Amino acid sequence: MPRYFFDTTNGETAYVDTDGMHLADDEEARRHALDALPDMASDDMPNGDDRRLVVTVRGEDGAMVYTASLTLRGRWTHRKRG
């Protein structure tokens, strides 16, 4: 099985995956990248209301295979109380 690497960024902090994981094919790597985005969002949202989260999948040869992003925007709809 080929090895895939999942690099992530939240616009402020970048992580370069040096371990990777063995997956069956590109489609499984795509699903893994998409599954990672909600976890990144729940971890990152307390740090701000505007975030663009990105997962980039690289193959063993270093070539980009897939990229997925999620944009989070939060806005107060009334004056913050307390």
Question: How would you describe the overall organization of this protein?
Answer:
This protein is α+β, with helices and mostly antiparallel strands and 82 residues long. The protein has one domain (3-73). It is 23% helix and 37% strand. The chain is built from 1 helix and 5 strands, in the order E-E-E-H-E-E. The chain has one helix at residues 26-44, and strands at 3-9, 14-15, 21-22, 50-58, 64-73. Strands 1, 2, 3, 4 and 5 form a 5-stranded antiparallel β-sheet that branches. Strand 4 and strand 5 form a beta hairpin. It is elongated.
Summarize the structure.
This protein has about 80 residues and is of the alpha+beta class.
Gyration radius, to the nearest Å? Answer: 15 Å
How would you spell out the order of helices and strands? EEEHEE
- Biggest sheet details: 5 strands, antiparallel
Number of helices in the DSSP assignment? 1
The percent range for strand residues is 35-45%
Shape: elongated
The average pLDDT value, as a whole number, equals 91
Q: How many extended strands? A: 5
Distance between the termini: 54 Å
Which regions have little confidence, pLDDT < 50, spanning 5+ residues?
A: none
The percent range for helix content is 10-25%
Count of the domains: 1
Would you tell me the structural class of the helices and strands?
alpha+beta
